[in-house]
Design a protein that fits this description.
The protein is 15% helix and 38% strand. It is mostly beta strands and 248 residues long. It binds 2-oxoglutaric acid. 2-oxoglutaric acid is lined by residues 155, 157, 166, 171, 184, 193, 209, 227, 229, 241, 243.
Amino acid sequence: MDLFFNPQEPHLPFPITDSIDYSWRWDKRLQAFFITLANGQLIFAESFFNEKISQRCVEYFQEHECLGSSDTGLPYLNMTELERIDFTHIKWQQDHIQMYGKRIPLPRLTSWYGDSGKRYSYSGISLHPRPWNKGLRYIKDTIEQATGFSFNSVLLNWYRSGDDHMSWHADDEAELGRNPVIASVNFGETRDFVLRRMDDPTQKITIPLRHGSLLVMAGELQHYWQHSVPKRKKVQGSRFNLTFRTII
Ligand SMILES: O=C(O)CCC(=O)C(=O)O
C-alpha cells in the first residue's frame, strides 16, 4: 500500500518506471503533473485547453478560402490538393527528406512560425519563419503565462490520419540550445507520444496526447531520450501538434 497516496488528487494517467529515478507530483495551480524521469523532466496537463478553444484551434488551422467561402474539416490532402488550397491562417507545406538517394515526402504536413530570423533546420530541411498570427500568438501567450517559460518559434505538424506519423528522433539541433524547453500542444485526434531511452530502448513511456493536452519536455531529456508518434491504423481523423521552441 502506498502510504503517500492522496485519493483527493489525480493519479498519473499512464505508467512510468517504478524506480528511485522516476517520480511525479500533482501541481494544483497548473492542474498538471510534474514528472521526473532518469535524465529529464516533463510537465503534463491533460486538458490544458478546454473543449471550446481546442475545437476552435482545429478549425483555425484548416480554414481556407475555397470558392470564395471559408471551409473547415478537410479530408486527407495529398500534395496536388494541398497546392490548390489557399489556407487563411496556416500555410501548410509538404516537406521532403533525402533517404537512400531518394526524395521522400514527410508523412505529415508542416509549417514554421516565429520571430523574424528564427530559422530552424532538421533532417536536411531548412525552415524560414512566417510571422505570428492571432491564433498562434494566443496559444503561445496562454502557455507562457501558465508555465513561466517563453518561446520564439513554433513547429506545426498536421497528422492527416493515423497513417501520418513521426519517426524516432530527439530535438537536439544546436540552435535549440543545450537543454531545450519544448512545449507541445495537441488538438484533434488522440495520438500516442512515445519516449524511449537511447541507451536502453526497452525503457519506454507512452503518453496519450489528447484534444487540448499540453506536454512540456525539459532538462537533459533530449540527450538521453528519443520520442516518436507511431502510426495508428484505427485513427481516421486529423491531429494537429504544435511544438513551441526557443531558437538561440
Ligand atoms: O506530434 C508530436 O507529438 C511530436 C512532435 C515532434 O516530435 C516534433 O515536432 O519534433
